[in-house]
Amino acid sequence: MFSKNQLLYSSIGILLVFSFFLYFFSLETYTYIESTSLLFRKYFGKFYLWLGLICVLLLLLLAFSKWGKQKLGTAKDQPEFSRLSWIAMLYSAGMGSGILLRAVQEPVYMYQHPPIDTATDASTIALQYTFYQWGFTAWAFYAIFAIAVGYYLFVESKKVLSSTAFASIGTYVTSNCIRNTLLKGIDILAILTTVFGLVAAVGLGTTQINGGISHLTTINFGVKGTMVTLLVISALAFISVYRGVNKGIRILSTWNVYGTIALLLFVLFQNNVFQTIAQFFNSLYHYVTAFIPLSLAYDTYDPGEAFLTDWTYYYWAFWLAWAPFTGIFIARISKGRTLREIIIGVLLVPSLGTFFWFTTFGQSAFNLIDDLGMYNGQFDNVFNSIFIFFENYPFQGVINTLVIVLLVSFLVTSLDSAIFVLSMFTNNGVKEPSKKHRILWSIILTIFSIGIILLGNTKEDINILVAMQKLLIITSLPFAILMVIMIIFFIKDFSQKQKLVER
Hints:
By secondary structure, the chain is mainly α. Helices cover 76% and strands 0% of the residues. Helix 1 (6-24) runs parallel beside helix 18, helix 2 (26-63) packs across helix 19 (464-475) and helix 5 crosses helix 15 (339-372).
């Protein structure tokens, strides 16, 4: 089964070599990553901003044009999953534990250090900018990739590979050898980008789980505790992905949605509901009306290079790193839906849900800070801020336990989705990859994730978040450039196909 599988061997070989340096030369590897990331951010930061804006505008144009009625598949194809299950799966795969990691810490940081000065109050600016970094642009990266790959997969009947979106390269490269090499290189790059983005999230999530357990038990489990947590999550993810999309991933994803809604409602009704709703619409209005200048960091909406480097460029790199596996996973579960429904379902629905989530937790945290009369950095630590936050509410033990369970579940669904997609990539692009491929990728991702945790603990003045900020800026750039080419090919092929249909 694995014989002559160059894509599998090449990808795993590169990852194992990099893992070797992570395990045995952690400090030297981190130093190199740090210096390289500074160069990338200096010269390509604005490129990330422009790419994000273009993806959002292009998707909106496509959704509300006559082409929005085109299905991913034939006219007779019907969706495999209910709309609720579909949204639950795409949301769990696309956002995951990040909303728990940043629920309190990010809005409070923006509240204490407003990145822009637009003559509005600090709470509105804080939520407006949090919306910007978690909203339409993030989901646009996923959606554009999902639609492009889904189009070639279900309309053009291509294989489930990233390179299917670059089939038109044959028009410009006539040599079979060169063309095949380029397509293989694209698939390897997509695999590597997927792995780096996924293990970054797993590293952050497991560190938060370990931080939460340490906070609740007052026992510091350290790096070894984080690794044990990682092994448990990896085992659960393997069980889920081994069972498949319907029996494993769908069930866990639905639980994630119900669990987060329960947590959201608990916080919402412990506070002034009308104040939260009013703040949501107010912040949403400022976000939407200022979306273009925000996206380009233009004039008064420019937070400065230092802030962009630490926050926005990192976020854009993170979303881009997740685009290959999240996009293909969304494409895989979206057969039979129209482009309009997919764009609205991926771009708008999850964004609005995320906005209300951050408004509820953010406004509650703002109120707590105002009631205290002074802020002593209670919510500064990204790994335990949400646990400290719930100490101000009843049933804190039950609620914080629920947070940890949700963190585990979100990480499992992100990891199992990635394992499933990576297995599709290396199992000749089939829609139901073999279980041997799923086992292999479960092992490889666990090995690499441990290496990432070691990287994030090489120096006392850094943590895994700092390390991932620097690493993803580097690893996502090649894929970001490829995405530009993919968009051009997709528009060309799709428009030609529609013209033929309309004749």
